[in-house]
Amino acid sequence: MALDIIIGAQWGDEGKGRMVDTLAAHAAIVARFSGGDNAGHTVTVGDEVFKLHLIPSGMIHPHSIGVIGNGVVVNPETLLAEMKKLEDKGIDVSPARLKISYGAHIITPAHRALDAAQEAARGTGQIGTTLRGIGPAYVDKVARRGLRIGEMSDPESFADRIKAHVEFTNQRLTKLYGAEPLDAESTAAQFTEYARILGPYTADTGSLIDQALKKGERVLAEGAQGTLLDIDHGSYPFVTSSSPTAAGAISGLGAGIQHIGEIVGVTKAFQTRVGEGAMPTELEGETAGRLRGSGANPWDEFGTTTGRPRRVGWLDLMLLRYAARINGFSKLAITKLDILSGIDPLKVCTGYTAGGRRYSDLPHGLTGLENFEPVYEDVPGWQEDVSGARRWEDLPAAAQNYLRKIEQVGGVPVGWVSVGPEREQLVVIAG
Ligand code: IMP
Q: Rounded mean pLDDT of 57-65?
């Protein structure tokens, strides 16, 4: 069996949690490999809606072990709160089922305070971060002064390290940003307590994954955020601070590249984005309202982590093709096709223009994306409600045609189409 990787093909929020839940049905391990509690994965099972930020969505299946890999940044406070919520719903999150890499880095309140202070200081140039301390935690990691989960096994030196980290960050908070300092002593005491609770969860998760793969078990790498938010390949600087791409899965889990099976790119049937940065196909007005929804349903286009209304627009196939190239997608999973029912005609972006020139490929990745105008093709819409479709043949011809267009321009076959939030509202396409 193989390491299958699920990747967001857009700016996050593609419905990866739902696809992970579906594909985890046969996975022994489901592993998060990048980002932290900036992610928000929603999974609906019957009447229950699970909103997860850090714990792999696949853990909702009783047979899967959840791994938080070395590439993740972990806020112990939000992790423990999430564990409690799942326990309250009867889901086992004991150390036998949840493993955290000793190499994962820790997010502290000092990181969060710094995230907020830096965003405020950016003024009109804000990135629109989730304010979860993600960027500052990765900065500490790369600067080689980060705090790792493995350090929790030595409470005394861990407390000293936390104190030193808070004192160091206080210097930056107060002197650079005029922000309030944090109390180093109480933070250290708090984190010593977290260490006591989380100690039994610490593991060599890379080795666990390797053993599972060698035993012939399936491992699912659960992407967070999306390709267009990648620190290297995204719309820099309006990106997150990690690598939510297929390559990030390999380094963020410490898994061998030879094990890769499917690389599934998840994309909505339209485009969304939260936070700042260019979005060439962004829409306003009535169609935008239809795509976004009112906010009454958990699957409407409002952030799971921040509650912010998402920007919405027509599906950008230029960007999908780019994401397919960066990740090497073997299949696509299209989500929220049902939302397009009743919009006719639909539009998809198949090219860009800039300075009177037409582009069918991006000249410098996503650099200067704001300078490009989308070129649209009209595609006939459909009126039928598709939420009951379970097979390709159940879909109206116009919906099939829309999906074929995505395959043709994106260059990757479609394997799954979700037509509603429930587990079973899925069209599985053979082949
Ligand atoms: P950060 O990851 O909190 O530093 O935020 C950086 C950018 O990534 C901002 O534009 C966020 O809105 C965006 N972002 C981070 N996590 C997610 C996610 O899970 N879904 C969508 N956007 C995200």
A: 90
Q: Give the architecture (CATH level 2) of 3-90+205-428.
A: Alpha-Beta Complex (3.90)
The minimum-distance atom of ligand 1 relative to the CA of 130 is 3
Which position among 4, 21, 41, 61 bears the catalytic label? 41
Q: Is the predicted pLDDT of residue 431 greater than 80, yes or no?
A: no
Q: Is the separation of the CB atoms in 39 and 71 below 8 Å?
A: no
- For 101-114, the DSSP string reads ETT-EE--HHHHHH
Q: Each residue of 70-103: pLDDT tens digit?
A: 999 999 999 999 999 999 999 999 999 999 999 9
| CATH 3.90.170.10 domain residues, the chain | 3-90+205-428
User: Catalytic: 259?
Assistant: no
Q: Is 114 in the pocket of ligand 1 (CB under 6 A)?
A: no
**Given a cut of 90, is residue 49 above it in pLDDT?**
no
Q: How far is the CA of 239 from the centre of ligand 1 (A)?
A: 7
Enumerate the CATH 1.10.300.10 domain ranges in the chain, comma separated.
105-199
Q: Please say whether the beta carbons of 375 and 281 come within 8 A.
A: no
Q: Give the integer Cα–Cα distance in Å for 160 and 56.
A: 31
Measured from the CA of 115, which atom of ligand 1 is nearest? 4
Q: Is 309 in the pocket of ligand 1 (CB under 6 A)?
A: no
Where is pLDDT greater, at 431 or 184?
184
Residue 36 beta carbon below 6 angstroms from any ligand 1 atom: no
Which residue among 13, 37, 115, 210 is the active-site one?
13
pLDDT in tens, 372-386: 999 999 999 999 999
Topology of domain 105-199, per CATH?
Adenylosuccinate Synthetase, subunit A; domain 2 (1.10.300)
Query: Does residue 326 line the site of ligand 1, with CB under 6 A?
Result: no
Tokens linked to 356: 């009177």
Whole-model pTM above 0.90?
yes
Q: State residue 305's pLDDT score.
A: 73
Across 70-96, b (16+ Cβ under 10 Å) vs e yields bbbbbbbbbbbebbeebeeeebebeee
